[in-house]
Design goal:
InterPro entries: AhpC/TSA, Thioredoxin-like_sf, Thioredoxin_domain, Thioredoxin_ResA/DsbE_sf. The chain has 211 residues and is α/β, with parallel strands linked by helices. Helix content is 24%, strand content 21%. The protein is globular, with a radius of gyration of 17 Å.
Length: 211
């Protein structure tokens, strides 16, 4: 199958940044039987662990899809080389600390190069105390279909990108958020009346924000 290439140009701004690497997207499943693909990543797999956990692209939907409980799931895609990401994450960490014991789950998905996983990402996880909240995702394995099937507004061109989901409420935000924006979005979603997601009707109640 012909490879699809998404060229990402390096550029750091106050809102988002793009990688200077070419992420080669290809259909990794074309010759694989569905029984050969591991897709069972549960929330419990993100429990305390010594090594940062690697998650495969085909496992990500298990972390991103709507759940039937009333927990708010905050998933942030970042990289240590992305300055806007580094500005934003401490705000998430502060909010995470203030919500201890409440039904909210924070996951930070590193899109760093694999060569940086045991160095830059590992050091970052320890510096910010996020070892149990960071997972590793090899961006070179992501296909255009990965983005179109999992997100409404993100095509992978830039990070940071944040997905917040609670029942049928969904918020997608591409770019770095200020502390006030993070707090406002999370507070609104947690305060809203909980309604389980109705997949067959594909209903989404969005809390929109500045893009």
């Amino acid at each position: 199958m012909k490879k699809l290439v998404l060229s990402l140009v390096l550029g750091v701004s106050l809102i988002a940044c793009k990688n200077d690497k070419e992420l080669k997207f290809e259909d990794k499943n074309k010759d694989a039987d569905s029984t050969q693909i591991a897709t069972n990543v549960e929330e419990d797999s993100l429990k305390s662990h010594k090594e940062l956990l690697e998650v495969k692209a085909e496992q990500m939907p298990n972390l991103l899809t709507a759940k039937t409980n009333d927990t708010l799931y905050v998933t942030n895609f970042f990289a240590t080389w992305c300055q806007p990401c580094m500005v934003e994450i401490p705000h998430f960490k502060e909010k995470m600390e203030s919500l201890k014991g409440q039904p909210v789950k924070f996951t930070f998905v590193s899109l760093d190069n694999k060569s940086d996983w045991k160095t830059a990402v590992n050091d970052f996880a320890d510096e910010y105390g996020l070892r149990n909240n960071i997972v590793l995702l090899d961006g070179t394995t992501l296909t255009p279909e990965f983005f179109s099937q999992n997100f409404d507004t993100w095509n992978g061109e830039a990070i940071p990108f944040t997905l917040m989901r609670r029942g049928n409420m969904v918020d997608e935000y591409m770019g770095s958020m200020k502390k006030e924006e993070i707090n406002s979005k999370i507070d609104k979603m947690m305060a809203a009346n909980f309604a389980p997601s109705i997949d067959q009707q594909k209903e989404k109640s969005k809390i929109t924000g500045k893009k």
